[in-house]
Structure formats: C-alpha cells, structure tokens
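Per your request, structure below.
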C-alpha cells in the first residue's frame, strides 16, 4: 500500500467525524420565507445627565416564518450610539438583552408560546470603533415552536444602564407580520 494512503485515509476519517457533529440545516429551514417588520426607538442613557448628546437610536427587525405547523423567529438589532464614551467601555450597561418571542396570533391579546433571552447584546453595545463610535448590530439565534394557527415574532429590548439605579428598562418594538 502506498505510504500517502494512510494520511489521506486519516484526513477523510477526521472529516467524516467533523461532519457528523456539525448541526445541519434542514432543507425546510433553508427555504423558509421570513416576513419582517422593523421599528426604531431613541433611547436615553438614564445614567448620564451631562451636556453631550446621549441617546441611542436602536432599530430592531423581527422576522417570522412557518413551515407546516412550526413557526420560526429571529431578530436583528442595529444601533447608532453616542461618541462621547471612552473606547470599548464595559461600564455603560450593567446588563442588556433581547427577549425574542413567538406568539399565537389571535383576536385580543396574543399569548406567548415560546421565548428566549439573548444576553450577548451587552458586549456588542459596549464595543466601539477606535474613535469611540458606538454603532453596531447584533442578530439573535432562531427560535421555533409548533403552533396550530397563525403566529407572530415579537421582541422586547431590556437595558440596565450602569449607575442609574433603575434596573432593567423595557423597550417594546413592533412584532413581525403574522405567518
């Protein structure tokens, strides 16, 4: 047997092991047609009362799709923050998260049937450019839930500003179209 064969077989076996442990996207998930809505809020930094502009303009797009009886949702946040903070300031927030929900769409109040908090947002909000410009974006993962009738994706932004003593402040955004 050729001596090159053993390393090639070992590499092929390693590739098979990696492929077996990588989560696969199903054909259904790859073909989903998401319907999205977007809304923007200008949010005041309640921990700062100085003379410089301190509002953060945060836009969140909420997207939902369905395949058969399963609804899927994700959200993407984009923000334009002030430039007066120091570069990469980890003390702007005590915490920040996006709560993504799937709700059953019906007359009256839409009940929540699935939800997940995404806390990775805080580190992204506190990350700036070299010129201390706090602009960025963050995309949640996708959640899903089996649901009979129509569903919507919904999102709430929770911000806990460092030093204001108020804890989480809730900011609601427009939900997705019904799917």
């Amino acid at each position: 047997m050729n001596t090159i064969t053993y390393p090639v077989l070992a590499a092929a076996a390693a590739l098979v092991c990696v492929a077996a442990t990588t989560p696969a996207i199903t054909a259904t998930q790859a073909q989903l047609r998401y319907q999205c809505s977007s809304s923007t809020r200008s949010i005041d930094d309640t921990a700062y009362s100085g003379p410089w502009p301190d509002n953060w303009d945060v836009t969140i797009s909420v997207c939902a799709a369905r395949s058969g009886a399963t609804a899927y949702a994700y959200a993407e946040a984009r923000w334009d923050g002030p430039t007066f903070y120091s570069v990469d300031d980890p003390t702007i927030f005590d915490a920040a998260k996006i709560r993504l929900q799937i709700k059953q769409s019906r007359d009256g109040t839409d009940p929540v049937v699935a939800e997940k908090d995404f806390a990775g947002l805080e580190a992204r909000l506190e990350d700036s450019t070299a010129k201390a410009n706090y602009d960025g974006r963050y995309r949640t993962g996708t959640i899903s839930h089996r649901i009979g009738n129509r569903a919507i994706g919904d999102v709430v932004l929770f911000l806990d500003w460092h030093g204001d003593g108020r804890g989480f402040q809730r900011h609601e955004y427009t939900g997705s179209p019904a799917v």
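The first helix runs from residue 5 to 21.

Regards,
D.
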